[in-house]
Amino acid sequence: MFKLLKNKIIYLCFLIFTIALGIYKDGYISTILFYTALLLPVVSLSLILFTMASFRLLENVDQRIVVKGDVITYTYEISNHTKLLFCPMTIEFTDSKVLFKDTILGEEDEFILYPDEVKKAVKKVDCRYRGSYYIGIQSISIRDFFNLFTIKFKSIENPKILVYPKIRELIQVNKYTSLIESNESIVSKTNKDPSIFSNVRDYQSGDPLKAIHWKLSAKQGKLLVKENEGNINSRTKIIINYDSLPFSFEYNVVMQDYIIECVVATIKYLLENNTPTYLSYYKFDMQYISASNINDFGQFYNVLANMMFSGREFISILEKELGSFAQYANIMIFTPYITKELSEYILLNRARIPDINIYIINENKCEVGSILTDQDKQPLVDLLSNNIKVYKISYENELCRLEVA
């Protein structure tokens, strides 16, 4: 930018000089210099427009559906099929500073295409965050050889990738954050409903006799054991704050990834313990899914990978979802941070929602947590002062940690 400004100042000085020269000393050379100064920007703009209209761009990725942490190969080809030299071009990639940090895609490419030249670049891209987003060239800046003008070309159709969240194990930090403590139990391991079972398996030494499915065992000629679901009263409802976040696109993707991975780990834990689990999520409108067995984890995983964060009425949706709270022993709300509206709603309805747990991002552990530290902390303080259980999410290696706020 400074170089462009410097060259424009030099050009204006040159133009003023040629005008003054033509006034005070009219002649052939002064006339040539004057018309050269006048035609210079016209020629520069013409070359830029010619380059913009003539170059050809092709982008491709070797995989469009991947899991977080996978490395994909991104390729682009830009060509000059004319007999003229193109203006200098600079390629800027999509949201490269955050989403593709520490990868080669984050670097800008600058080059000049000679007649009949094709430039091909192959880049390895580390898919670091869950979500569905475009990857590739965001814009191509074309400038003239005299550095007087620059025009950005943005009408580029990029390939879109879908990155599935990483599956982590849920762990406790201390007894107060354990999901299986008796006082905060979401999973009932001791009180099984014998009338509800999700699967049968071969008898193993140590299995209680009351768990044997006698009727089916007689038919099969071998002992079969019922795998009971959790207590019918331990059913859990998970609600995700799907409202659009007020930050930049790439920061939103990082925070959404943070929330979704914790939801995935939590649902995996619940289903492994045969706990009836209900999920409310947003995809164009409100959708619902439920299961009580780990065999159904895949459908939750697919839903969470494709979930959209584009709503604007979470509080009204929350009011509707919590209207049937009596059916559930536990309500779990996942949100990036506590808003004033959310805090006021929960405190106002606390009497009729006795067991509610809220999960938020630990800003000290999140890659973009610095922007969360600027958010108003009073809504969180209000919840904690009224003994509402709030947990902070953080990650360590392949583990998801929940810490008391």
Question: How would you describe the overall organization of this protein?
Answer:
There is one protein chain. The chain is an alpha/beta fold and 405 residues long. It folds into three domains: 55-164, Sandwich (Immunoglobulin-like), CATH 2.60.40.10; 169-189 and 232-404, 3-Layer(aba) Sandwich (Rossmann fold); 197-228, no CATH class. It contains eight helices and 20 strands. The strands form five sheets. Strands 11-20-19-18-17-14-15-16 form an eight-stranded mixed β-sheet, sandwiched between helices. Strands 5-4-8-9 form a four-stranded antiparallel β-sheet. Strands 1-3-6 form a three-stranded antiparallel β-sheet, with no helix packed on it. Strand 19 (389-396) and strand 20 form a beta hairpin. Helix 1 packs antiparallel against helix 2 (28-54) and helix 7 packs parallel to helix 8 (378-385). Residues 173-178, 180-198 and 229-233 have low confidence and may be disordered.
Helix-strand blueprint:
Layout (H helix, E strand, L loop, with lengths): L1 H23 L3 H27 L1 E6 L3 E3 L3 E9 L9 E5 L15 E3 L6 E9 L4 E4 L2 E7 L6 E4 L6 E5 L4 E4 L24 E6 L11 H7 L3 E5 L7 E5 L8 H24 L4 E7 L1 E7 L5 H10 L7 H8 L8 E5 L5 H9 L7 E6 L16 H8 L3 E8 L2 E6 L1
Helix pairs in contact: 1-2, 4-5, 7-8
Keywords: Membrane, Transmembrane, Transmembrane helix
Provide a short characterization of the protein structure.
Keywords: Membrane, Transmembrane, Transmembrane helix. By secondary structure, the chain is of the alpha/beta class. The protein has 8 helices and 20 strands.
